[in-house]
Amino acid sequence: MKNATVLIYAKPPRMGLAKTRLASGVGLTEARRIAHFTLARTMRAALSGPWKTVLYAAPDRALSDTLGGIWPSHLVRRSQGTGNLTDRLNRGLADAYPGPVLFIGADAPDLTPALLHQAVRVLNRHDAVFGPARDGGFWLFGINKRARTRSPFANVRWSGPHAMEDVWSNLSADASVALLSMLIDIDEGQDWRDWNESR
Fold first, then answer.
1. Number of domains in the chain
2. Fewest CB within 10 angstroms: 77, 106, 137, 161, which?
């Protein structure tokens, strides 16, 4: 497990920067509060294991932020860079060392260290793993990176009901793929209401 890498793709919880779709349903102030809440939970989970954790932050001016300790000063940070989400994820895949590589955002408040441990363990026996979200996307994608691993992120219909399906279809036909538990990604106001009702 020590050669596993967790890549977090996140923005600081600032009004008008993070959670813009959520803000249209709950307002800017509440969206900022929710973004702070989900980001803090994500960081606690990602920093609670023996894997290497790398933050891919956007925009670049946020790279030096600590957010009151949510992004601790010792955390390895890299720029998401330019381009679309495919370009930014490809950058992380290219940078990562061979071994289990997990990609997560900061939208799933039920993410735990145990789920990350489970994902890494699953990659001991599988080529890839998804943590599905109920909207057709995913709260986690993991892949066993090898010398000839090809990116599975091309031509993906991001932020829609086909995102997981598209990434999965980009994997080799004989790839062994596992699924983790389905979680709620907080993208819109209804997601937040549903998550609170499920408590």
1. 1
2. 161
Distance separating alpha carbons of residues 144 and 100, to the nearest angstrom: 4
Range of the domain at 45: 5-197
Cβ–Cβ under 8 Å, residues 4 and 51? yes
**Pairwise CA distance, residues 76 & 92, whole Å:** 13
Burial class (CB in 10 A: 0-12, 13-18, 19+), 16: exposed
CATH assignment of the domain containing 100: 3.90.550.10
DSSP, residue by residue, the chain: -TT-EEEEEE----TTTS-HHHHHHH-HHHHHHHHHHHHHHHHHHHTSSSSEEEEEESSGGGTT--GGGTS-TTSEEEE--SS-HHHHHHHHHHHSPSEEEEEE-S--TT--HHHHHHHHHHTTT-SEEEEEBTTSSEEEEEEEE-TTPPPS-TT--TTSTTHHHHHHHHS-TT--EEE---B----SHHHHHHHHHT-
Give tens-digit pLDDT for 51-75.
999 999 999 999 999 999 999 999 9
Q: Is 99 left (phi over 0), alpha (psi -120 to 50) or beta?
A: left
What is the pTM for the complete model shown?
A: 0.96
Please report the pLDDT score of residue 125 as a whole number.
95
